[in-house]
Each structure stands twice: as C-alpha cells, then as structure tokens.
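Standup, Tuesday
Yesterday: got the pipeline producing structure tokens again.
Today: sanity-check two examples.
Blockers: none.

Example 1:
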Amino acid sequence: MTAGGSPRRSGGRLAAAALGAVAVVGAGLVAVSLMQQVGDPPQPALGSGTSSEAPEEAEPVAGSGDADPEGPVRTADPSGASDMTPSAAPTAPESSAEAERPMTASEPVALSIDAIDVQEDVFPIGLGTDGELLAPSGDRANLPAWYDGSPTPGETGPSVIEGHVTWGGRPSVFFDLGALAPGDRVSVLRADGSIAEFEVYDAARYPKDSFPTLEVYGRTEGPELRLITCGGDLDADGHHLDNTVVFARLVPS
C-alpha cells in the first residue's frame, strides 16, 4: 500500500459521508418546509363591526416560549357586554319547531364539528391581568377553549369557544372554521354527560379594529354558541387583520 493510498480512501469515505449528511439534512429541510407551508384558511364574507366599544386586541399570550401572533381575538373584558342588548347581531332564523329549552349549567369538555373534521377536548379559559380574553397556549395551544365568563353551552346566552387558526406555522383546530355554513351542526359534550347540539345560522369576518363585541358577547333570547378564530390578510408583522365568528343556536339533539 502506498503512503498516499490510505488518505485517499479515507478522504473518499469522508466525502461520501458528508454528501450523505447533506442529503439527509436537505431532505429534512424539505420536509420541514412542506410541513410549514400553510395555505389560506377559508374566509367567510366580511361583516360590519358595529360596536363602538370594541377594545383593542391584546398582545399575544406567551406559552412555553411559543407565542403565536395568528391566534384568535382577545378582547378586553368581554363579560362587560353580557348585560347589553346587541345593536346589530345576526338574527337566528325562526324554526317551525318549538324553540329548544335551555339546559342547566354544565361546563363543556369536548367539541365536535363534522363538517370541518374537528373532534377535540375543550378546556376553560379566562381573562388576563389586563382584562383581555386569553388564548390557548403551550401544550393546549391546538385545543379549543371555552371562555369561562360566558354561559355554558346550552344555557341561555352566547357561549363562546375560541381556537387558533394556525399555531407554530401549521394549521390549528379552527383553520377551517370559515368554511362553516348555515345548517352545519356543532356538538358540545358537557361535563354532566349531556350533549348540546347547535346549528350554524351565520358566519362572518370582522376587522379587528372594529370587532362587534356586543354582537358576539351580548345577551341573546335563547341558548347560542359563538366560535371565534383569526382570519383575513396578514399585516407586516404577520398578524391577521380580521376575526372569523360563527353564530349558532341550540337545536334538538
């Protein structure tokens, strides 16, 4: 064996190993790139935010070091709207059947929306120190959250459940929320074992700077449900400019 033979073979092995490593890394980068490619979520028609008291959006809430600017609306103390009559809320269509009677209070534990393939656990969420509605974060970032200052699903009034449209650059639980249309059903499993069944009657997108607080959180004649996420275009900082809101009413299950 010549003096230079071994280094050449060793160098060849090193080069082959390096090329293999580059190939693996390249494939990994492609996979990550593909996983992070998120198309536009479905967008309902743009509604008119009529509430002059709509507060500004709070800053994103940190969770396990991963705050997402594309999360749902966070309004300052939405519970303040509960005793006020909405000024221009979408009107639930009249039903030929007798209106569904309100259910007794029981917190939601799971949410099912067959039309957009959502079957997830639900957890309660409240207000932050500044009075803003917090958003799901950390280990529960991709779960829907029930605002615990609103009625439980099935009680009289608007029960509010929010969820992210994306999280960490990927579609989250309410990515397809804007695709819901009148007649679609939303089922909420409650802690007492009962199911509150809702029927969608409207969906709209509202600019965040004119979010219709009263229409979303204000008093209703019967049991209703509000599903909220982000929507619309992104601003220069990657924040969604709008919120998507789905309106539904309790129906016989």
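Example 2:
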Amino acid sequence: MDQLELFDIANPCIGVCQSNNRGYCLGCLRSRDERFNWHLKPASERAHILRLLAQRRARLKQKQQKEESAVDTPSSLELF
C-alpha cells in the first residue's frame, strides 16, 4: 500500500538551467526526462527522482573532494 502524501513534493529546480555533456542539469542534476512535466508526474515518481538526485549529489561531492585533494597534495615531482 502506498503511503499517503500530505504535502506536495517541491520542484528541485534552482534556476540554473544548463545541461552538462551527459544531459543533466547543472543546477538540479535532473535529466531532461526528469525535468519534463515535473508537475504532472505522480508523487511516487517525483519522490524517486529526488532520491536519485541525492545519490548524484553525493557522487558529485565525492568527485569534487577527490579532485581537490589531488590538487592540494603535492606530487613527488613538486617536492624537488
């Protein structure tokens, strides 16, 4: 049985509507299909998309941290 949704699920759009080379929005991280007709999608589908976005944000954060640590850590060549 589906859980009763008491509140509408907010649109995750932050107004940065540009896509990366893989087709994901740079602002909200949704694909074109996930963005298209957001307000018409069933609440269960929107909730699923929001879970996917949380996973994408976590992966992006890990990638950024890895890149920052690579820049902050001098290579053995930089030590000489």
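Quick observation on example 2: The helical segments are 32-35, 43-72. The mean pLDDT is 86.
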